[in-house]
Amino acid sequence: MARFAFVLACALALLASSVASGAIVEHSFNVNNLTVTRLCKEQSITVVNGSYPGPAIRARDGDTLVVHVFNQSPYNITIHWHGIFQLLSAWADGPVYVTQCPILPGHKYTYRFNITGQEGTLWWHAHVSWLRATVHGALIINPKAGLSFPFPKPYKEIPIILGEWWNGNVVDIENEGIATGIAPNISDAYSINGLPGDLYDCSQNQTYQVQVVKGKTYLLRIINAALNNQLFYKIANHNMTVVAIDAAYTTPYVTDVVVIAPGQTTDVLITANQQTGSYYMAATPYMSANINFDNTTTRGIISYENSSSSSPIMPALPNPGDTPTAHKFNTNITGLAGGPQWVPVPTNVDEHMFVTVGVNLELCPVNATCQGPFNNRLSASMNNESFQLPTNLSMMQAQFYNVSGIYTTDFPDQPAVEFDYTDSNISLDLSLVYAPKSTKVKTLKFNSTVEIVLQNTAFLAIENHPIHLHGFNFHVLAQGFGNYDPINDPQKFNLVNPQIRNTIGVPVGGWAVIRFTANNPGMWFMHCHLDVHLPWGLAMVFEVENGPTPWVLPPPPADLPQC
């Protein structure tokens, strides 16, 4: 009880301080279609305020962000503020049919929330279908006025948004995949700040370029906004020092390569300490599964001031299947214990969960033609429950108004059947590979601490799955390959300075253990951030109950979209 009262008092003081001391940062987002030229052809894409990527939002810890979204596109839309805690503002989180119904074409909605106890690089993106391919932008949170970074102030900050491009309408591409029951078409290119770079056709003049001053240090705020691919990122002849991930400071870590999954952010310092000249930055896929993928490379150019070089130096890039390099990067990063916004690992665990993640099959509907294995549809699940969104009411409206029939509260704490999860021989085991569709949540008591073992499975394709949790950061206690060993693997837990994230790449054919405290009432989505897997059902929802006043889910805003 004493621990609960202390944590509650600290949270209340932090929230009250933020609301009292911050500024109001207001933006208008006009969502509409824009015709752009990429890869030799004109393409109509959905964007915000006529730009791709969309506008960067800059605020400080403690500020209140107000964003008026006007949907002038032909598609339903919502905006998710990826990584924001949304303390007592869950209605602003944005996942369609979880916290709100979509903003219909011709309609509007205002997102309003306080930024509390956060600083670093986050981002915003559409959370309906594949629209986030082009509807996204940076959300940069600086320390409160008078406070500084826990590293030397950089000469300049540079957002680097890594994206993915299709020669086609992404909504149509996704719908075609759903209709046929197979994976949608792979992308045609990757991009840096919306530009594919000079390795692609007709793209010589569509290469991102930035000029640097010799001897100066720059902060690159790297965001992976790609839909379906993890990426390696390198800069020729330059090391990078990782200082933050997912808006959580890290112990400085020097590396020549960054590995970043969809949804993740990584802040690095780079010093222009090489010979005056020009150098390529490049991003290429990390693909851990034996499946078809976009095996191309995007690149931009870093030019030193007064450089006359017309032939930039190209970095040596890892092979797409270089799991050892990816694992080394992902496991060598530690949190900056005692630094700004540091939260110690909660030691008393109230809820233990073992959650399998992977690709499955769904029986082909009657009178339909499906092109997946055994003429069925591809599907995906957590604990063999393939998540299905409601369509006539958001889950949080059902929670608030106590409406039955929208979801059930029986998401399992472990899979119904134990098996050798990472044995490749189970890939097409028809007794295991089918997963029923359901809309199930796991109910959590307010302020309970949850530990989850995320276990990859070998169904159909063994791959790394980036899992994103809305509304909370979590500590990454350990990760490894094979089946999680409940006897020996807890001995590997880092309880001193683990990395803090909101999105974790669960190792290919392996596992990761995360821990978080459910200190905010509402409905919180946990899902794979590979968009090809989300509509297949690789997701679930946490229902966090109300706590003592004021930790109670507030009524929905008057302008909340209705289904």
UniProtKB/TrEMBL annotation:
Q: Name one Pfam family in it.
A: Cu-oxidase_3
Family matches, as InterPro entries = Cu-oxidase-like_N (IPR011707), Cu-oxidase_2nd (IPR001117), Cu-oxidase_C (IPR011706), Cu-oxidase_fam (IPR045087), Cu_oxidase_CS (IPR033138), Cu_oxidase_Cu_BS (IPR002355), Cupredoxin (IPR008972), CuRO_1_LCC (IPR034288)
**Per its UniProt record, what SUPFAM superfamilies does this chain match?**
Cupredoxins (SSF49503)
- What reaction does this enzyme carry out catalytically? 4 hydroquinone + O2 = 4 benzosemiquinone + 2 H2O
Q: Which GO terms describe its cellular component?
A: apoplast
Q: What is its main location?
A: secreted
Q: Which residues form the signal peptide?
A: 1-22
Q: What Gene Ontology terms for biological process does this UniProt record contain?
A: lignin catabolic process
Q: What is its EC number?
A: 1.10.3.2
Q: What GO molecular function annotation could you give as one example from this UniProt entry?
A: copper ion binding
Q: Which cofactor does it need?
A: Cu cation
Which keywords has UniProt assigned to this entry? Apoplast, Copper, Glycoprotein, Lignin degradation, Metal-binding, Oxidoreductase, Repeat, Secreted, Signal
Cofactor comment text: Binds 4 Cu cations per monomer.
How would you classify this enzyme at the top EC level? oxidoreductase
Where does the record say this protein resides? Secreted, Extracellular space, Apoplast
Q: Provide the Plastocyanin-like domain boundaries.
A: 31-145, 157-307, 411-546
Q: What does this protein do?
A: Lignin degradation and detoxification of lignin-derived products.
- Which NCBIfam families does UniProt cross-reference here? laccase
What protein family does this chain belong to? Answer: Belongs to the multicopper oxidase family.
Q: What is this protein called?
A: Laccase
